[in-house]
Amino acid sequence: MNGDNDMKLYLKPGSCAMAVHIALEEAELTYEIEKVDLAAKKTERGEDYLAISPNGYVPALVLDDGEVMTEAAAILLYIANLAPEAELAPAPGSKAYFELLSQLVFISTELHKNFSPFFKPNSGDTWRGIAQKNLETRLSLMNERLTSNDYVMGERFSVADAYLFTVLSWAQVVDISLDAWPHLQRFVARIAERDSVQRAMQAEGLK
Ligand SMILES: N[C@@H](CCC(=O)N[C@@H](CS)C(=O)NCC(=O)O)C(=O)O
Questions:
Q1: 38 CB near ligand 1 (under 6 Å)
Q2: Which domains does the chain have, with CATH numbers?
Q3: pLDDT in tens, 160-178
Q4: Which one of 80, 86, 92, 155 has the lowest number of neighbouring Cβ atoms within 10 Å?
């Protein structure tokens, strides 16, 4: 049941907002979603999205007090802190917590943003070429990290896995092969099986 004061996630199906959607499912929090037409900056219900989130991109999470939180990495940590029983992050303030932050920033700035030009029709060969090279070195680093661990943070699922899964799922969409990185391929297959991921993808109309 969704009431007036539940959180609301603004998203575009399959976008980086899906990481937040997966985390909300993992945390078993009560929330609703609304899709955004990013070109028109209109929500599904016809609201002006720029009035809700002036940066104009997703994700944006409306909190139960009505405040709007943006930036995927921050929202993911917020959700982890809201539902400590779900253990989606190490104890706040611990060294491991900052290692999680480090991984979230890496996924955001080094992986996510290097996929961006492949979604922009006018990005051009130069930007795409640089991004492709960046992705190769950074995907290799993440592949290495997952050699002996099932999850970004080791043996336990965290919000970083929701984000990494979402970003890696774009490889197929933009025709970037992950064949050179078998641990990443196995990671994607493993995370895709989680109920939270299945539910989020279903709700976004991706299944
Ligand atoms: N810095 C933002 C970037 C979010 C972002 O890149 N969102 C994309 C979808 S994955 C988007 O909404 N793009 C549309 C636009 O920039 O107009 C974050 O980390 O949350």
A1: yes
A2: 7-87+195-203 (3.40.30.10), 95-192 (1.20.1050.10)
A3: 999 999 999 999 999 999 9
A4: 155
